[in-house]
Amino acid sequence: MDVIVCGFGNLGFRHVEGLIASEVIKQITIVEINDTTFARNMERVNKLYGYKKNICRVSSLEECPINANLAIVAATADCRAEHLTSLLKLGTQKILLEKVPFNSLAEIKIALLSTKHSNSIVLVNTPRRLYSAYIMVAKLFKNISIQQIKIKGVTDLATNSMHFLDLVDFLSSKKLFKLETIPDNIYDSKRSGFVEFSGKVVATFANNRNELECVLDSSNSHGEIDLTITTDRGIFNVKEKSSQGTILVVGPDKTEYSDKLEMQSALTKQYVLRPELMCQLPSFCDIAKTNTLLLESLPIDTFLSKDNQRYRIT
Length: 314
Description:
34% of the residues lie in helices and 29% in strands. The chain is of the alpha/beta class.
């Protein structure tokens, strides 16, 4: 199996860790133009896993193999449209986009058109719907009406909102149609040139029968994500305890269920070993509306770039 990884920062490194751990990987081609970034993270790879002769580096996608089995686009959002276009031309079979997929409204429209007319499968890496704890919760909700979901502890809302908006879509089988961002603090992202915010994101989901309100709140963040899910059968609580690597679910009758909280490297390994698992992720076409509504909800004066072409999030 031949895999292309676009971008070799911290996130790209985590994906490469998972690929190294998979016995089905034949070749890993890393696209990274920054010499320092590549050298730093290859040193980490060599220290942790020893020299890997099946990893090569290129500086552009034009140097990548044709018809690769998988490409993971872990570069920042301002580069993803260019990467996607090149990967579609190369005939890459599956393409996994990190989120936020795009920070330009124009690029979202172009990507929708190009993916719809391609044989490539283009997916977005919002993997909570693959966690067995959330699969169990979703099964519980098949015959239960969810009225509200409050999620506390979501840091860096510009980047991380899409994880939880997709999770609400998965748990409720309702689709997002309205979104409001309420920043209380806007600050520099850990990724140079981009910004983040804390505060709240208020979203409304609906199906043919009723609506559901979801509130993402960055307060009370101590390394835990806390979901309070109000239903017609009572309140469910879900806690992601990252320090312990666990997810704890408590039902209205106080019944408890716990499971492990998967790290990205472990998920990447699972994706390549079980391609059908990866295909359970949302397609870009499925998540494009969420991407659009998120950008449109951001305050223009602080988030839009000087050329008015991009929102400064990734």
